[in-house]
Design the sequence.
C-alpha cells in the first residue's frame, strides 16, 4: 500500500507509491555513457584555456602559468551567467510586488583536465582537489556582503541539465536565501529551539540505529536514502559529527569525504547503469548582519547541519507534482538503500 511520509527537515510530504514500485532495471536505459562527444572542441579540456573566461582559481602543477595547460582543477566565470557580478542589489517594491537587480556570481568548477573521467572514476586525490575548490570559492564569496547564499551544484547528463559533458560543477551566489534552503534552515531552528538538539544529528543517530536506509558509512560521513525521499534512489551524504558549514570542515577530513562521494557515486553508477543526476551542496548561508535583524540565523552553528543531496533523474515531474507540491516516488528508500548497499563494485 502507498504511504504518505513527512520529511522532518522541510515539513514536505511525499507519496511513496509502493504499488508502483520500481527496481533499478525498471527505469530503462538512462545511461549518460554515450553523451561524452568529442574533446577536441570542448572548451573545458586542457589546452583550450583560451576558449574560456580567465580563471579565478586553479590547482596547478608547479611552474605552470594561469590560463594555460598544467592544471588539475580550474574555476572560471560562467560564460553565460544567470546573475551578474557587477552592480548593487537595489531592492525595490511596486505595490505588492518585490524585485531587485540580478546581482550574483556564477562560476564553473572544471573538475579535471580529462574529458571523460567523472567523479566515480577519479582518483580520491582528484575529488579532494574539487572539494578544495568548492571551499575556497565559498570562503572568498562570503566576503561579499551582497550575497546571502552560495550554492554549489553539479548537473550530470543532459537529462539533469548539463550542456557540456566534460566533468564540471557550478556555483551560484545569490542576494537571497533560496526558498528550499530557507525552509531547511527555518525548520532546523524551530527543532533546535524546542529540543536543543540538531534535527540532522537526531536523524543520523536514528538511521544508523535502524540501518535500513543507510547506503554507506565510515568514521566521519554517512550516506543514506532519506525517509521521505522525493525521487527514486535519492541519496544524502552527511557528516556524522555536527558541523553547520561545509566551508568550516577541517582540511584533513576532506579526503574522507572524497572517498565517500566516490563510493556512493560508484554504487549509483553500477546499480542504475550510469544515470543522469543532480548533486547539490547545502551549507550554511553567508553570515552577514541584516539591517534590523541582528540575530538573523543566530543559532545556526548549533541547529543546521550541512549535507550533499544526490538526485538521480529517473522519473519526470508531472502535473500532479507541479499542482500539489507532492512528489510521487515509485521506489521505497529502504529498497533503494538495499540495492545500493549490496551492489558489488
Sequence:
Amino acid at each position: 500500500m502507498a504511504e504518505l511520509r513527512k520529511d522532518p527537515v522541510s515539513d514536505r510530504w511525499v507519496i511513496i507509491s509502493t504499488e508502483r514500485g520500481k527496481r533499478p532495471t525498471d527505469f530503462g536505459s538512462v545511461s549518460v555513457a554515450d553523451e561524452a562527444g568529442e574533446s577536441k572542441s570542448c572548451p573545458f579540456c586542457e589546452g583550450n584555456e583560451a576558449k574560456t573566461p580567465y580563471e579565478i582559481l586553479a590547482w596547478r602543477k608547479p611552474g605552470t602559468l594561469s590560463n594555460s595547460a598544467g592544471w588539475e582543477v580550474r574555476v572560471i566565470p560562467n560564460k553565460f551567467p544567470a546573475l551578474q557580478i557587477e552592480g548593487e542589489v537595489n531592492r525595490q517594491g511596486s505595490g505588492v510586488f518585490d524585485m531587485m537587480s540580478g546581482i550574483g556570481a556564477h562560476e564553473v568548477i572544471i573538475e579535471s583536465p580529462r574529458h571523460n573521467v567523472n567523479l566515480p572514476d577519479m582518483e580520491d586525490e582528484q575529488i579532494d582537489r574539487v572539494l578544495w575548490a568548492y571551499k575556497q570559492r565559498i570562503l572568498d564569496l562570503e566576503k561579499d556582503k551582497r550575497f546571502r547564499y552560495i550554492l554549489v551544484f553539479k548537473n550530470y547528463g543532459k537529462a539533469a541539465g548539463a550542456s557540456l559533458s566534460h566533468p564540471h560543477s557550478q556555483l551560484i551566489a545569490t542576494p537571497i536565501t533560496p526558498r528550499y534552503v530557507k525552509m531547511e534552515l527555518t525548520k532546523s531552528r524551530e527543532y533546535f529551539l524546542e529540543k536543543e538538539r540538531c534535527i540532522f544529528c537526531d536523524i543520523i543517530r536514528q538511521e544508523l540505529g535502524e540501518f535500513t536506509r543507510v547506503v554507506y558509512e565510515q568514521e566521519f560521513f554517512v550516506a543514506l536514502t532519506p525517509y521521505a525521499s522525493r525521487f527514486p534512489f535519492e541519496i544524502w551524504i552527511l557528516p556524522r559529527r555536527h558541523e553547520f558549514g561545509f566551508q568550516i570542515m577541517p582540511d584533513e577530513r576532506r579526503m574522507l569525504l572524497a572517498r565517500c562521494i566516490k563510493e556512493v557515486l560508484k554504487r549509483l553508477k553500477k546499480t542504475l547503469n550510469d544515470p543522469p543526476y543532480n548533486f547539490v551542496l547545502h551549507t550554511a548561508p553567508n553570515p552577514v548582519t541584516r539591517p534590523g535583524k541582528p540575530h538573523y540565523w543566530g543559532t545556526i552553528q548549533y541547529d543546521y547541519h550541512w549535507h550533499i543531496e544526490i538526485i538521480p533523474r529517473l522519473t519526470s515531474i508531472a502535473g500532479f507534482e507541479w499542482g500539489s507540491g507532492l512528489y510521487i516516488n515509485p521506489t521505497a528508500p529502504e529498497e533503494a538503500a538495499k540495492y545500493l548497499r549490496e551492489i558489488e563494485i
Observations:
- The radius of gyration is 20 Å.
- The first strand starts at residue 3 and ends at 6.
